[in-house]
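re: the backbone from monday

yeah here it is again, tokenized this time
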């Protein structure tokens, strides 16, 4: 069964936020070799639009959030399930305390120091 990927982010009034998320989606597409559908809790395209657009019977929802906040646990899940229309939906964990997150934070720390 082929899985579609839906990357969910919060949204922002800052246009640079959308450029960053779209850049991450493009890099993820290169990694997985297929289109990544992006949806926002507060922005366009919406969570619902992204899930509806994702093809196939299986959708993997990947939250681009740090933790399992109420947005991830409640809002994203509710909005996805309302429009899943019989598709099987699997929810990935948010970034959290994954060791690679620590590596990125360390790298940003070194960047700030000019190293």
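seq for it, each position gets an aa:
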């Amino acid at each position: 069964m082929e899985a579609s990927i839906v990357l969910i982010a919060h949204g922002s009034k800052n246009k640079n936020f959308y450029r960053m998320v779209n850049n991450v989606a493009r890099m993820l597409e290169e990694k997985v070799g297929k289109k990544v559908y992006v949806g926002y809790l507060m922005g366009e395209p919406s969570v619902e639009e992204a899930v509806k657009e994702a093809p196939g019977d299986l959708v993997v929802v990947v939250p681009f959030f740090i933790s399992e906040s109420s947005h991830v646990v409640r809002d994203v899940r509710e909005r996805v399930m309302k429009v899943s229309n019989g598709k099987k939906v699997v929810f990935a964990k948010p970034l959290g305390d994954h060791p690679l997150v620590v590596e990125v934070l360390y790298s940003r720390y070194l960047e700030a120091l000019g190293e």
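Strands lie at 3-9, 36-40, 58-63, 88-91. The CA atoms of residues 20 and 26 lie 10 Å apart.
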